Amino acid sequence: MSWFTGLVVYFLIWWVVLFAVLPIGTHPSAEPDPASGFRGVPQRPQLWRKVLITTLVAAVVWGGADWLISSPYISFRHGYFAAPKDG
Predict the structure, then answer these.
(1) Chain-centroid distance, C-alpha 71
(2) Each residue of 33-61: pLDDT tens digit?
(3) What are the distances in angstroms from CA 55 to CA 32, 35, 85?
């Protein structure tokens, strides 16, 4: 995989992992708004911590994806997933 393709794949993986990590450890505010009853956003979202966790998890997942893409186990050129040969 080229460096540009690797960067695009990493960004896509990072984005998906971010949405998986965001709800971890969040608690809504204890006091609801008196007018609407809405409890609002979390009091301490710890976004920098979640960005760091997302980056580390995405790096591990990207490493696995890079290994799988460059390995001979899944190939669209030969084997089970290959397109039928002309002829």
Answers:
(1) 21
(2) 777 777 777 778 889 999 999 999 999 99
(3) 33, 39, 41
